[in-house]
Amino acid sequence: MTRLTAALVGVLGVAAALAAGHLVAALVGPSASPFLAVGNTAIDFTPQPVKDFAVRAFGTHDKLVLLLGMAVVLLGVAVAAGLLSRRSPLPGTVLAVVLGLLGVGAVLHRPDLGRLGVLAPVAALAAGVAVFRWLHGRAAHPAGTADGRRAFLVASGATGLAALVGQVAGGRVDVEASRRAVGALEPATPAPPVPPGADFAAEGTPTFITPNADFYRIDTALSVPRVRAEDWVLRVHGLVDRELTLRYDDLRRRDLVERTVTMVCVSNEVGGPYISTANFVGVPLRDVLLEAGVRDGADQLFSTSADGWTAGSPVDVVLEEDRGALIALGMNGEPLPLEHGFPARLVVPGLYGYVSATKWVVDLELTTFEARRGYWLDRGWARDAPVKLMSRIDRPERGSTVAGRVVATGIAWAQPTGVSKVEVRVDGGPWRTATLGDDVSGSTWRMWRVELDLPPGGHTIEARAADRAGVTQPQARVAPVPDGATGWHSVFFTVS
Ligand SMILES: Nc1nc2c(c(=O)[nH]1)N[C@H]1C(S)=C(S)[C@@H](COP(=O)(O)O)O[C@H]1N2
Ligand SMILES: [Mo]
User: Fold this and answer.
1) DSSP character for 328?
2) Are residues 147 and 204 part of one domain?
3) What is the distance between the alpha carbons of residues 73 and 356, in angstroms, rounded to a whole number?
4) Which numbered atom of ligand 1 lies nearest the CA of 354?
5) pTM (2 d.p.)
6) What residues contact residue 113 under an 8 Å CB cut-off, 6+ apart?
7) What's the pLDDT score for residue 156?
8) Mutate to test the pocket of ligand 1, among 43, 210, 214, 219 (most ligand atoms within 8 A of CB)
9) Rounded to 5 degrees, what angle do the CA atoms 46, 49, 54 make?
């Protein structure tokens, strides 16, 4: 057998294994797909500093980088398995079994899969071993003859095609069709329109409402959970007077409300990009919890996603009438995009996403902070995580050169009370009060703008915000871990 043939046999064996696993996973739970299960488990086991590094280095592409890395390693293993097996199929068979068992282990480790999930990597193992041995037999046996070569080529082609079909067919839980069928979610109570003076987008701030395609995205999901609206069920249970089981239609038939809310990630650095604003449409979370009847002693609302991710929010916060916490179904005039939690997610203004904003939410348990711990709590992050008072400078940009008069703009946020003032200073000089954009609500960011006359040369601009309670944003720099960054954003730029 030539080296090339041997490598091809190895690669096709692995392709067949992945495709078979993927196909079976479509039936027993998409995250059982062996490649994804191994990837997800790798994420769970990755040490926190490495995760932080990956997010810093690759931003929201961190997961793509992981998948590509795994694909390269797997390709290497497949080629090696083929090359080692030129004389006998034994080494490749052993490797296939080891890889399969790795998949079984990964699936067993997933919190979101029942025992049936194991069928996917078992199918992968069986298909991998069978196809590898079959192709090996074709390649080794009638070596050299034209007929033998043709038979091997046909067999390889058929395997490649079958693997492709398995991979494509496995991915098709038709959640896109389900989302299209949901159609428009008309709120009975729309959000007040955002006044045109709310942002300074022409001068460098973000638009007040972030388009869905630009909304920041943070989650641990390697593949987006694919839950169809018609299959979705939300269970409300635990320390309640009566358990509720809510279906999508139960919720969408209610009077929906629309609220403009700014969401922030706790891992946002001072000056960072992980903040966005949308019009969310949904059902007040408070109403649903009051229907269930929250018992005394329940201090935590523990929410679980379809992929097993969990978050714990303070019950008193989510029950506040003015807080406006939602079970959201829609975002900016559409059903939630898949990456932002379709069919349903939680949105709680003023709490960082990791303690409140569960996407693909399927379970709400009223419990205590003693009894259960959300996903990020055992990974170094705090239990209590209200969003911190913060401001960011968007213009001038770091390191830029500005000609003539400088228009500085930016954003500030202080959920749920709202921003009352933003001040800027240049080169440590006196503070100047910026003009604020029109106010939308305490649950959203507030944009600011100030014109500065500066001499040519290098300058450093700093900003600080104050909230409606009169608290001023603290100067001291604190890193995001464990409960959010603080400190004044400062930007160095040059006037020409
Ligand atoms: N199921 C699930 N929900 C999740 C997360 C997650 O990893 N899984 N991440 C949370 C975090 S840390 C943040 S900041 C917000 C981000 O929501 P977005 O991706 O829609 O911006 O979602 C939250 N909800
Ligand atoms: Mo986050």
Assistant:
1) E
2) no
3) 36
4) 12
5) 0.80
6) 28, 29, 31, 32, 37, 107
7) 79
8) 219
9) 75
Point out the domain boundary residue: 149, 170, 191: 170
Same-domain status, 418 and 328: no
CA separation, residue 301 to residues 190, 340, 357, 371 (Å): 27, 20, 12, 11
In this prediction, residue 45 carries a pLDDT of 76
In angstroms, the CA 491 to CA 496 distance is 16
Contact by Cβ (8 Å): 458, 496:
no
CATH number, position 400:
2.60.40.650
219 within ligand 1 shell (Cβ under 6 A) = yes
How far apart are the CA of 357 and the centre of ligand 1, in A? 6
Residue 350 CA to ligand 1 center (angstroms) comes to: 14
Same domain? For 122 and 256 the reply is no
For the chain, what is the domain count?
Answer: 3
Protein residue whose Cα sits closest to atom 5 of ligand 1: 219
Mean pLDDT (10-residue bins), the chain, 496 residues: 88 86 77 76 76 72 77 86 89 86 80 73 87 85 68 79 72 82 96 98 98 96 90 97 97 97 98 98 98 98 96 98 98 97 98 98 98 95 98 98 95 98 98 98 98 97 97 97 98 97
Q: In whole angstroms, what is the distance from residue 96 CA to residue 93 CA? A: 5
Q: Within a domain: residue 385?
A: no
Q: Per the domain annotation, does 460 fall within a domain? A: yes
Pairing relationship of beta strands 489-495 and 401-402 according to DSSP bridges: parallel
Nearest bound ligand to the CA of residue 480: 2
Q: 360 CB under 6 A from ligand 1?
A: yes
Parent domain of 76: 3-170
Q: Whose CA is nearest to atom 12 of ligand 1?
A: 354
Q: Which ligand is located closest to the Cα atom of residue 263?
A: 1
